[in-house]
Amino acid sequence: MREAWVDYAKGIGIILVVFGHVNRGLYSANIHLSESFYQLTDSVIYSFHMPLFFFLSGLFFVQSLDRKGKTSFIISKVDTIVYPYILWSLIQGTVEVVLSRYTNNSANLADVLTLFSQPRAQFWFLYALFMVFVLATLLYNKNKFNYILPALIVISAGLYVYQNSLSQAFHLGYIIKFMIFFLLGALAIRYSAFIGRIGMGTGLIALVAFALLEWGFHDYLGLTYTDVGVFSLILAVVAIAFIICLSVLLAKADIAWLRRLGELSMVIYLMHILAASGLRIILTKFLHVNNWSVHVIAGTLIGLIAPIIAYYVIQRLHLNFLLERPRYHRVQRKEKTL
Question: Where are the domains of the chain?
């Protein structure tokens, strides 16, 4: 059974993703309020928003794997992660090449075609997520997982803390950085009944803890999200706990638009850079608008709304191959039954 709060957490997470990318794009275009404000907002967001998505991805890992079996589970991840990764890396990369004279970074076709060895732009997340899913699947044993999960969490936490001393070859850094959060998700789902009972008091405590840790990390210690270690791990875990509390409370309030953002978070993730960057180019190059507030609000909104509109157009025109791998064998079976 799917927990309602998960879609709200994804909704919050995808808003942060779009805002973060819009803010970074504006900074690269030399549009910002101040250097210090940019660095702070960027570091606060990146201190937890991607760990949040790995945590959410781990929630239903065991349930799905038990239902499908290892082979079918991996194949399903090829369909839902690898296929859109390849397709949209090519689509976005091609657009970047064509419009390179208008964008912040130049791109060429050779860069685009290295997608199997070097993920581009936001698509690194899908590349990393598939790696995490594959490794977790290989480590999984139905009869022993309850016992080895705590040990795996301790080991992955150690790898995270000492990641700067470990090899990053073959993109192992993705596993080192994010496996801990995926495994914590696999553990957290066991306490779904408790999570569903979270109230306002717990939410306020989580908010205070989150605010204090962010202040201590960024202001008191002067660190940024790239300063990984015990403190950054604790900060990310507390931030995720706060987002969980907030999501549970929002789910009780039944905010339909936020839930829908969460349901379509993958679609938004795939398309938001094209939408937001396109708007930035129009505003700066053609309309000569260079106000940060206008850009960040308009860019975030279009980065969220345009992919949703595209999703409904895709559904209406039956262009589902843009979002999921075509399944021709199913069509053949239907034809044989007619």
Answer: 4-337
